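Hello,

Our lab assistant flagged a job as stuck in the queue for most of the afternoon. It eventually completed. Since we weren't sure the result was trustworthy after the delay, we are filing this so someone can double-check. Below is the sequence as submitted and the structure that was eventually returned. Let us know if re-running is recommended.
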Amino acid sequence: MGRFDEYNVDLKGLKAASLSLNFNLDNTFFANIEGEEFQRGTATAVVTVRKNREIFDFTFVINGTVIVPCDRCLDDLEIEVSTENTLRVRLGEEYADDGDVVVIPQQDGDFNLAWYLYEFMVLALPMKRVHAPGKCNHEMTGRLKKHSAAVGDDAEEAEEQEIDPRWASLKNIQIEEDN
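-- returned structure --
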């Protein structure tokens, strides 16, 4: 039995027009999936499958929390994830994923949901992942301020010194706003 066999859906053997599946995702699931964004967390997922002739419509509703490194201090940061996604799947000759429909080989007939569960959670994460103000690791933020302030001051001074005098007069142009 494979690590993700419990996430298989037998599309060929699906008799009912609708099926609902519940999954509890934990640290073991995330560690086994070996994703780059996060490897710890807990979540519940409800996956509904609706069979419409040759197309299977999947709806994923996922809620939980994941642990990611803070972009500022690199300490663990707990982020809530809540997402609802859809996916269309059909049986065909060979595997294909054109973005609109995922094609599963007819001879297999099994569709594994594990990677999609993970990916939908990744897509729900915010771009910027930082602690609330004052909650970051103080030692790390102190070092960051020390190094970024010195670099910032030198960069501003260098920029002012390197401006071509022919372009310097353009700084004084003001654009009038229409009222």
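-- support follow-up --
The delay was a queue issue, not a problem with the job. The result is valid. The first strand starts at residue 8 and ends at 10. DSSP finds four helices and eight strands in the chain.
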